[in-house]
Amino acid sequence: MIQYYADLTRLEMEHLDRANTVVMIPLGATEQHGSQAPLGTDALIAGAMPEYIKAELEKADPGYPMLIFPVIPVGFSVEHLRFCGSISFKPDTYYHMLYDITASLAKHGFRKLVFLVCHGGNRPVVDTVARQARADFDILPFVLSSGAFFHPDVQATISEGNTFDFHGGEMETSMAMAIRPSAVKLELSETGYKTAYAGKKAIRFSGEHALTWMGGDFTTSDGRPIGIGGDPSGATAEKGRIILEISARELVPALLEIRDW
Fold first, then answer.
1. In the β-sheet with 140-145, what is the strand arrangement from edge to edge?
2. pLDDT per position as a tens digit, 103-123
3. Domain range annotation of the chain
4. Over the range 191-203, which residues count as b (16 or more CB within 10 Å of their CB) and which as e?
5. How far is the C-alpha of 201 from the C-alpha of 241, rounded, in Å?
6. pLDDT at position 166, please?
7. 3-state secondary structure labels for all residues of the chain
């Protein structure tokens, strides 16, 4: 049965089969997503994804034993701090906060944790926490990425001619529109280009050979830092719903394996 961690009483928690219950911890961020999408885009996604996951999981296993932890709305977002409104933990602050949550859960007898990463910049710190926690507490901390952005049906949502879709672009803006349409100001959309990496062949902004990107590396056509990639103006709530549904569906096989681990 999928429930929300914070909804349970202390007595209900005591009676739970904690050793076989999966605790999902949604990890968001509060950072700029261009002029059109809200600062809380990743936190909105982190709040919505468990609902979509719940709907998909209940088709496969109505009794799936999971608790959904409250969303962590701030993460490691140093790449966006030059843009007004962005908030970031330092890596060690974020590490210790997640480690302490993990230690508390382990103390209460939980053995299976899922860190649901809804902001890619969180991943390096989360991987480190998961590895250390597994060694320290003999638990199973899994790390899952929430967005199936390279799935062909998700890629098909990108507007023709929008050849580069990255942070704060069409897909993320669509997801925000599906969750909180009133927070999106699509009429303010501007296109972001990977200006700092233009013409580079060996070094990219991510991957095996990279200069870790900062928001200022992505600019408008006239060179003004904008910190997003691609043209978000084609975003729609329907596209966002498709992305969220497919992303949730793609996580089900991993979650079923975690149940049986």
1. 2-4, 66-68, 22-27, 112-117, 140-145
2. 999 999 999 999 999 999 999
3. 2-150+248-260, 157-239
4. bbbbbebeeeeee
5. 35
6. 94
7. CEEEHHHCCHHHHHCCCHHHCEEEEEECCECCECCCECCCHHHHHHHHHHHHHHHHHHHHCCCCCEEECCCECCCCCHHHCCCCCCECCCHHHHHHHHHHHHHHHHHCCCCEEEEEECCHHHHHHHHHHHHHHHHHHCCEEEEEECCCCCCHHHHCCCCCCCCCCCCCCHHHHHHHHHHCHHHCCHHHCCCEECHHHCCCCCCECCCCCECCCCHHHCECCCCCECCCCECHHHCCHHHHHHHHHHHHHHHHHHHHHHHHC
Instruction: Determine if the pTM surpasses 0.90.
Output: yes
Q: How many CB atoms lie within 10 A of CB 204?
A: 14
Instruction: Provide the CA 238 distance to its chain's centre, in angstroms.
Output: 19
Q: Tell me which CATH code domain 2-150+248-260 carries.
A: 3.40.50.10310
Q: Which residues contact 57 (CB under 8 A, 6 or more apart)?
A: 2, 64, 66, 252, 255
Residue 79, token pair as written in the block: 């790449």
Alpha-carbon gap, residue 236 to 193, rounded angstroms? 21
The pLDDT tens digits of the residues spanning 40-68 come to 999 999 999 999 999 999 999 999 999 99
Look-up: residue for tokens 């349970």?
A: 8
- Cβ pair 243, 171 in contact under 8 A: yes
Take residue 146 and report the two structure tokens written for it.
Answer: 């929430």
